[in-house]
């Protein structure tokens, strides 16, 4: 019976019993988390949550494309969703009722590890304080406002704004507050005039000198933006010349959700590894579980944290469950659980990988950097510590997107963007950049240009077609 799906009344009652006892064990072992609301849902609903990112979210054609992609991957056996968990107070966790009872017992323990991590990690705490701990209700309210906008302004206009906002979804500035003031409208107060001697007074009164001083003072008035602005969603929402209020509302809604999801992105390896460590430990110490259920759950654990692709071929992408689980086991074995808890509190994936993925662990886990050759062959290029660290962390920099800043708002309202290619080390897909600039141009309603570099480092300028 333990391998049956969890949608019979008997299986559901058993899962409730095991979940209650697993939660008590978790508290006894020192896990500290906000209450967790568990819900069993069918697989198609879980697919929608995974694709949209939330149970109820604004509708957009891109989510349909992602759904088809996920459906194909799942049909090919490459992607199976066990759970989706949303940090907050309370946390919300969705389990698939088609999973077996052992799998959902494991998932319950896994979710409690996530809940402990999200409550105690500084990045989660910071962003939850800014974005609020009730993301599901807030997202549903935003979706309702967008549906109202569609009724008032039409599907085509609203979709055009969503095209632009969702294309810029990663382009926030995580070093700035979610709720931040507009730029100052006046230049800083000038310093007091120095006391001049007779010669200096006569010099200042010479023809042309007063005009130069006034022109110099004029040039000191702050421009827009006063410095490169990387929070593009915020900048466009507040400084687009002709945006309507409902359009600004959509941009700010997408921005707020992007802030909420950033810690999940920036702590993925730590978070999945911590949850995997605790689901393994909780199951191991849950002596109330039947032996056959325990063995089935441990088999599911092995499938989740395995380092291999199908048929034991080495995977060419890092499995965050396997890497994080292995690192936490290594840390706890060498330094103890209290040190691990301190790391949970203080680090994100950048510090976690650079400080605790050691040379010995890299060799043990057989991690390496590879190159794809023109003939289709794969060649191992390095397993040196720094190279492995940067290969893992490179895609995480700046939310995985090129670092683009609004650099100058011209007098005619045209907008200049610049790509900070030196700091992010990431090129721009010029064809995609043209499409995104076209989206931005529709809401900016003035020409928009992007200054970047080509494949050989030569200067390139991409311009929106709205001229």
Question: What can be said about this structure in brief?
Answer:
With 467 residues, the chain is α/β, with parallel strands linked by helices.
Task: Outline the fold blueprint.
Elements: H1 9-28, E1 36-41, H2 43-52, H3 61-75, E2 83-86, E3 91-96, H4 101-120, H5 122-131, H6 135-153, H7 155-167, H8 198-204, H9 209-219, H10 232-239, H11 245-266, H12 268-285, H13 291-305, H14 320-335, H15 337-346, H16 349-356, H17 359-364, E4 369-372, E5 378-382, H18 385-393, E6 404-409, E7 415-419, H19 421-424, H20 430-444, E8 448-453, E9 459-463
Parallel strand pairs: 1-3, 7-8
Antiparallel strand pairs: 2-3, 4-5, 6-7, 8-9
Helix pairs in contact: 1-4, 2-3, 4-5, 4-12, 4-13, 5-11, 6-7, 6-11, 7-11, 7-20, 10-11, 12-13, 12-14, 14-15, 16-18
Domain SpoVR protein-like N-terminal: 12-382
InterPro entries: Spore_V_R (IPR007390), SpoVR_N (IPR056174)
Pfam families: SpoVR
How far apart, in Å, are the first and last alpha carbons?
67 Å
Shape: globular
Going across the biggest sheet, name each strand in turn.
6-7-8-9
Average the pLDDT over all residues and give the rounded result. 82
Low-confidence stretches: 60-78, 215-219, 309-315
Secondary-structure element string? HEHHEEHHHHHHHHHHHHHHEEHEEHHEE
**β content, as a range?**
5-15%
* Gyration radius, rounded: 27 Å
Binned, the helix content reads 40-55%
Q: Which structural class do you get from the secondary structure elements?
A: alpha/beta
The largest sheet, given as strand count, sense and whether it forms a barrel, is:
4 strands, mixed
Query: Number of DSSP strands?
Result: 9
User: Helix count?
Assistant: 20
